[in-house]
């Protein structure tokens, strides 16, 4: 069945924005039931079936680029008419390069070793019992996300590769794009003879569906993953009755140490902030060692302003460049997701660490220095999910970590932490083998 057949035979013609409580319950319970059945089916299939489904979905996306771009153009027009900010428009926009990146991710995830059924460790007991810890799927994963349509492909692929069924609830602004991408995933499932319930998309933009997922689907959903801004993640964390895997903010810091190479610092700082300002790995705060401020700060600030970035800082930062705007206390806890950065001069690595511990969100931090002991001190004392030395924070990404893609960066200390790829979407069970042992 082709994507055109799917368009005609399955999907709703227009998004349903207002439904009754009974209609929401009927739709969501049916989705949950199908997901639970599909999860049981996947548990009895080997990894080759999931691999085949992803390769076929990638092929479908390659063949249907024009349809995906047409759907995205419809979303972009609606978002522009609604006055969405430039950062959200950037996250929403698809082009040939971004679709090609999604296709590559599907292929890379398909080619990865099966993360399910791996013996993580094993040992023998004195009584002859052999015990193994073996990776297993989580079950059914609910993913609630906002404007990035690529999450539809990434989340579906990662969940499926790890043997999980997934329920996707994307943002209303990316409705048509996500629908077109989901159709390609369905084509892959059909080719591999995997039930369509393995990857389902909530077919309504009614926000009541989100509330129902969080509070009324405990019997169906094992884990909820939010992918979006603070308000979304806070709501999910507050209202979900199942475990949540997510993070609140990407308050990312770059610290330029007194022994940082200036040219290296210039490249890293500019890339960390300006490569893509709307992603969670974008730097929001720049800390500069007072020892190198006279030589490094004016150049770094000039680079950022020259690239179109607004720089905010206190009087000592403004003294180096009159174009720097005043900084407020709230800036240190603001995830701009835009071409804005706050700059602070600190007295060495200890004050940099103290600033990050006070204001950071335990997401990603980077130190730029040629001093190895200082770098190791920073890496060991900063309690964030990702810590870096002489590298751009924009590498805080599952694809860049070799995971093919990610559902998000988890700042939780329970279960997965950092980029959440296929392997992080598994749990484990203990398998015990004996030969007649009984306990006294």
Question: How are the SSEs placed, and which strands pair?
Answer:
Layout: H1 3-9, H2 21-43, H3 47-63, H4 65-81, H5 86-92, H6 96-111, E1 119-124, E2 130-137, E3 140-145, H7 150-161, E4 165-169, H8 175-191, E5 199-201, H9 208-216, E6 223-227, H10 230-239, E7 252-256, H11 262-274, E8 283-289, H12 293-306, E9 310-313, H13 315-318, E10 325-326, E11 340-346, H14 348-359, E12 364-368, H15 372-381, E13 386-389, E14 409-410, E15 418-419, E16 426-433
Parallel strand pairs: 3-4, 3-6, 4-5, 7-8, 7-12, 8-11, 9-10, 9-11, 12-13
Antiparallel strand pairs: 1-2, 2-16, 14-15
What does this structure look like?
With 440 residues, this protein is of the alpha/beta class. It folds into two domains: 3-246, Aldehyde Dehydrogenase, Chain A, domain 1, CATH 3.40.605; 252-396, 3-Layer(aba) Sandwich (Aldehyde Dehydrogenase, Chain A, domain 2). It is 43% helix and 18% strand. The chain is built from 15 helices and 16 strands. It has helices at 3-9, 21-43, 47-63, 65-81, 86-92, 96-111, 150-161, 175-191, 208-216, 230-239, 262-274, 293-306, 315-318, 348-359, 372-381; strands at residues 119-124, 130-137, 140-145, 165-169, 199-201, 223-227, 252-256, 283-289, 310-313, 325-326, 340-346, 364-368, 386-389, 409-410, 418-419, 426-433. The strands form four sheets. A seven-stranded parallel beta sheet has the order 10-9-11-8-7-12-13, with helices on both faces. A hairpin with a 7-residue loop joins strand 14 and strand 15 (418-419). The mean pLDDT is 93.
């Amino acid at each position: 069945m082709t994507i055109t057949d799917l368009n005609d035979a399955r999907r709703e013609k227009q998004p349903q924005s207002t439904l009754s409580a009974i209609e929401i319950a009927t739709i969501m319970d049916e989705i949950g039931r199908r997901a639970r059945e599909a999860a049981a089916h996947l548990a009895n299939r080997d990894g080759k079936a999931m691999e085949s489904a992803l390769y076929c979905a990638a092929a479908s996306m390659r063949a249907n680029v024009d349809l995906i771009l047409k759907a995205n153009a419809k979303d972009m027009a609606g978002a522009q008419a609604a006055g969405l900010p430039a950062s959200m428009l950037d996250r929403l926009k698809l082009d040939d390069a971004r679709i090609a990146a999604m296709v590559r991710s599907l292929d890379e995830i398909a080619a990865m070793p099966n993360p399910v059924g791996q013996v993580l460790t094993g040992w023998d007991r004195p009584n002859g019992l052999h015990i193994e810890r073996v990776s297993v799927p989580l079950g059914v994963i609910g993913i609630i996300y906002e404007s990035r349509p690529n999450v539809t492909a990434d989340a579906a692929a990662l969940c499926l590769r790890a043997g999980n069924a997934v329920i996707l609830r994307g943002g209303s602004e990316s409705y048509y794009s996500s629908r077109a991408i989901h159709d390609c995933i369905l084509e892959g499932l059909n080719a591999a003879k995997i039930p369509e319930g393995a990857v389902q998309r909530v077919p309504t933009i009614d926000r009541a569906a989100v509330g129902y997922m969080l509070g009324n689907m405990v019997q169906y959903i094992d884990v909820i993953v939010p992918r979006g801004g603070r308000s979304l993640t806070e709501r999910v964390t507050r209202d979900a009755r199942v475990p949540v895997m997510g993070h609140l903010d990407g308050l990312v810091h770059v610290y330029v140490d007194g022994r940082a190479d200036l040219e290296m610092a210039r490249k890293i700082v500019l890339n960390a902030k300006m490569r893509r300002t709307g992603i969670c790995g974008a730097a929001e705060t720049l800390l500069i060692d007072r020892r190198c401020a006279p030589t490094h700060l004016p150049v770094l600030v000039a680079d950022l302003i020259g690239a179109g970035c607004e720089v905010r800082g206190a009087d000592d930062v403004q003294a180096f460049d009159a174009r720097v705007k005043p900084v407020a206390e709230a800036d240190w806890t603001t995830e701009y997701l835009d071409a804005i950065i706050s700059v602070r001069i600190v007295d060495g690595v200890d004050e940099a660490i103290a600033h990050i511990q006070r204001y950071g969100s335990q997401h990603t931090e980077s130190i730029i220095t040629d001093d190895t002991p200082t770098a190791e001190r920073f890496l060991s004392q900063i309690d964030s999910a990702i810590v870096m030395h002489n590298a751009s924070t924009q590498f805080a990404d599952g694809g860049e970590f070799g995971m093919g893609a990610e559902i998000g960066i988890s700042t939780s200390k329970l279960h997965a932490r950092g980029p959440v790829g296929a392997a992080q979407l598994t749990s484990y069970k203990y398998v015990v083998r004996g030969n007649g042992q009984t306990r006294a």
